[in-house]
Design a protein that fits this description.
About 30% of the residues lie in helices and about 20% in strands. By secondary structure, it is α/β, with parallel strands linked by helices. This is Ethanolamine utilization protein EutP.
Length: about 150
Amino acid sequence: MKQKKRAILIGRSMAGKTTLCQVLYHEELKYHKTQTVQLINDSMIDTPGEYLERARMRGALNVTAVDADLIIFVQDAAEGGTMFPPGYASNFAKPCIGIITKSDKGNRKMLDNAADFLKQAGAEHVFVTSSVLGTGFDELRSWLEDFGGQGGML
């Protein structure tokens, strides 16, 4: 039996990392602030937004990502900017995808900007989701299951 692959979720506070996990695992949506690194269903590593937001804490992301097979950058569609520097994915030397969350709160230009931010940071694929509308998750689930192989990541 193959061990499940793991992904690490990296993004700002309130970007929707925890909600993303809840939707992917068909759990009830309940907001709670992620205070520490959490392993969800032995496949998703949920990280506090402060690890990305505070430069002195970014090293914690690099250390935590050692246990991941996939890097996932999470970008809120309505956020005017980004915390992901160009080429940021190269810090991890692992496959990286981007997920735009809260697409229901963004217009076409905002979604295009968010996708550009993620691509510039090094995301190989970008998925657009809305947990409110339930959109974008079929494609994302399918991709994650293919990435994980035999039994998938989910």
